Structures
1.
Amino acid sequence: LNVNKNTIANHNLLDLIEIDKKQNEVLNGDILFTISSETPEEVGLASLWPYDDTNIYLNSFCFGFRPNSKINNLWLAYELRSLKIRKNMYKLAQGISRYNLSKKSVLNLQVDVPSDAEQNFDSKFVKLINIQTKFLSNERNELLLLKKFLLQNLFI
């Protein structure tokens, strides 16, 4: 589910997995975590699933958390990728060649939750920055392609 790369999961980047009876279906608003990786930096990364798709299940390297309290799930996804939380995740990672987290240790992490208004402001602000960053990155890539084309065709 591309949890490592995206704070907001991309439902166009899904892989096929074998479904097992013990798995729960991923639902809109779920927070997904990586629990196993080759590097401690990738363990415990969180991603929000904001879609109503059906028949979506996690692979064995992830687990899902379904917040049951009133919280802005987008804010929570961003908060779980903050430096403060990431440092705590690094401490929980165990292993040598492969790093793992226990679901229990992740669920025991303390997260300071601000007011609803602050959650909404923060999540909208960061989302706008991400949109602008993606736009500028795409624009940069287009300019690099143009530069390559011009260099290949101007200096023949």
Note: The beta strands are 30-34, 36-37, 46-49, 62-65, 99-100.
2.
Amino acid sequence: MSADTKTRKSANTAFKQQRLKAWQPILTPKTVLPTFILVGILFAPIGGLLLWASDTVAEVVIDYTQCESAGPNFVPVPQDSFSTSFPGKVGSFEPPAFRAVPSVQEGLNASWTTTKCTVKFTIPETMKQPVFVYYRLSNFYQNHRRYVKSVDAKQLSGAVRTVADLSGGTCDPLAVVKEGDAQYPIYPCGLIANSVFNGKYYQWLHPN
């Protein structure tokens, strides 16, 4: 090999040749137990503070899944469908109630009827700012691989997709709809397009 020939060999140093001195502790009960005790003493007060802060949060949780069958008049929410948590002692608490009334929605060239759910509840004590409103969905697996892949990119980009194009593709089982002996492509197809949550929330601070 000539002196001008390049080589890929690393430099002969302790760092690049992994010859640095190393220390590996020997784990014995005499060394491990004091370490665990020390860590517990340090983090137990922190855990206590976090638990205390969690207990001071005022919270009302209402599951309105059954609201659609409630009817036009207010009915009490089932006992197992709501829960409350308040830091202090609360006197009388009126259970929440809900009702469902039909609502006509107008589109560009069509109209359709949906169900409008109204939930009525009272906060028994003044809540400190800020007050947040969250919604929770059950059995909505948007992080699953099958859900993420259940979409046809070409269809969303505007390309015409036939039954043959969509059958057996990533949109299954929501790719093709059958009506009698005929088959039609679903626009848009896939689990993502057919499981969109589009609820709207309205809040009244001082209702009459």
Note: The chain has three domains: 25-55, 59-120, 137-198.
3.
Amino acid sequence: KFHKKISQELDHSIYGGVVPELAARLHSEALPKMLKQCKEHFKNLCAIAVTNEPGLSVSLLSGISMAKTLASALNLPLIPINHLKGHIYSLFLEEKISLDMGILLVSGGHTMVLYLKDDASLELLA
């Protein structure tokens, strides 16, 4: 199992928020380095998932381009994932969290209250 998180928070904090062009450049610099670190785990993959929408297109494009390249190189299927759902389901990468909970999701221009059901499906509340 390989899980690594790279934060750009400090890079953007001086601007008071995310700068799309800076985010895209930082993504393009960080992703190849991260892939080199996890290269030995590629043999365990059965697919490549990538968040594709909604979001800042220049930033998403960095990840989409890298995911397409990786999926092609490894001959694996590419699975598009809703960016907002990606935020939610990433909660389960680091900790064991039970389902059946309320979620306040605030991401860029998107704010919503959701209910995460026992079957991992989402219901929009507000």
Note: The longest strand covers residues 101-107.
4.
Amino acid sequence: MTLCYQNVRGLRSKIRTFYNNVTQANLDIIALTETFLTSSVSDGELFPSSYIVVRKDRLGDVGWGGVLLAVRDSCEVRVISDIDGMTPDKELIFALVSCKNVKFLCCVVYLPPNYCDDQYIDVLTCIENALCTYSNLNVLVLGDFNLNSCSTNVKTQFNIFCDFCNLQQHNTVLNTRSGLLDLVLSDYDHNQLKVFPGLDPLVPIDEYHPSLDVKINLSYGEFLPGLRSSPDESSHAIPDWNWRKADFQALYTALAKLDWSELMTFTDVNSAVNFFYNKLKEIINLYVPNKKLSPNHRQYVYPKWFTPEIIENIKKKYFHLKRFKQEGKLFNKELFSFYRWRVKTLIDNAYEQHLKLIQKSIIDDPVFFWKYVSDKKKERRHTETFSYKGAEVTGQDAANAFAEYFGSVFHNEKPLLNYVDAENAANSQNNVMPISVRQVDESDFRLAIRRLKPRSAGGPDRIPAFLVKDCAPALRSPLLFIFNLSLRQAKYPEQWKLSRVTPVPKGEPGKDVSAFRPIAVLSVLAKIFETMLDFRIRNQVDNILHESQHGFRKNRATTTNLIAHVDYVCAEMDSRRQVDAAYFDFRKAFDLVSNDILLHKLAKLGFTPKLLQLFASYLDNRRQFVRVSGFESADYFTRSGMI
């Protein structure tokens, strides 16, 4: 495991240099002190998406001091904040790290030279409390301790602290003034942990603070219990396709030549859908490789703008660095220095071209530009741990907790969904024009495809929207057959009743499960069918809906509702009449709508028995599962709620 430590003496003026060096460094862990960062600098400006970042900027957003810990997402990290004596003014980070079979408690600390004795000892006591709390783990403490400016009393207390915690000081790399400010403390012995001068610093070296490379070598270790269990245990553990490496020309050609004549012989819609998916996925598997399942074994992914020449030179650079460390030959060190210079030059040029492309996309492709901006603003902080019912949950337990919470809002009792009773009750009360959908045709299909957003997320079937949109002419005939078979049988396909749920924070990101709301994603083919049905039905019911209804209607929304309300209120006030308004907010209103009552409402609108039967099938046994942090829960039923 490779760790880089550096006191960077401020990053705000070195962001571009730092980012480019990180992208090619392929480090497991990066620890920094004196970052001088404020909230105006986002994690995405400093690190690519392959790093999890933990920051502690100085209290007050003053732009001085500060510590940072970044861990590759192939490793595991859990931030620890509930340590006795941990206060916001302390520039301290505690994290449990599991990386390459090495597990330990990591602490990054910065102690300013102007600290008084009590402040210094208070920080040491806080670190001591953390080490005692996690006494079953090895520990690694890195940071700028500024011991040379401390009193004799503090130095004595520091030695007592090291003896009590069984810590050894491993760093012997002196600065240009022959001093030692940055310390590497650990209970690993000198055979297990070694500190070397950093030959490839992330920013130009400060004269008081050399860059350090820390190597931890253990013959065997276990992953830290509770950090993450394997996603392979998930009930929906199916690898995603790697569309970045797809052979699209061959794929699209194969889909265009696919013979669907056997599909046209099916008389059961569920069998037809299963056959369709089997044929489609068989072709996709030929031309699109699978992604790796486990996040614990990810390969390092270079930025998209890296050229093959850059990657080749990076590999040569690290080859000679490895040889130099093994054999100590100056020849390898000189070649390493050459390739280091070469890589930095190539990266600077490539990044410059990348930025020009981004700037050009403001006009040519604004979506691409704003996606870049959004990525830069993102925090590289994966909320792996959540809180549910007073306990911390992570991994598979977190997915199950979200599923239990989201599923609890629905009715437990299965609805009857008796479309015959609904039809009879409606006929006894009024006589309305029948609303029906006998079949859908190519014009409906073209409309649905036109409305389909190619970048929308794929559903549980993993079929992406762009594939269906690009191959619409080839898929039109089999899909229309399935859609019309569903209408004839008045049976909605079972596979399309399943949706994937992603938890999204309601407001500020938090850890409690109740602070999230579910966003359900349907399969793309289900979206297309629903769009076609919506278009056919809406044309028949728009003229019978009340004028005051604004929800779920085309060209109407909360804004038009508010305009109508304000217009009425203003007119009444102009006439000097009193206006009283009562506002209601029903909790989980849409999730708790009775499916049986909904079916009766549709019958009263004039839905034919065949269409009612289709909607009863649509509502029956609908299921969802939660996906969070690569883990997926078991299915749960949604026995109530709006369509």
Note: Residues 220-237, 293-298 have pLDDT under 50 and may be disordered.
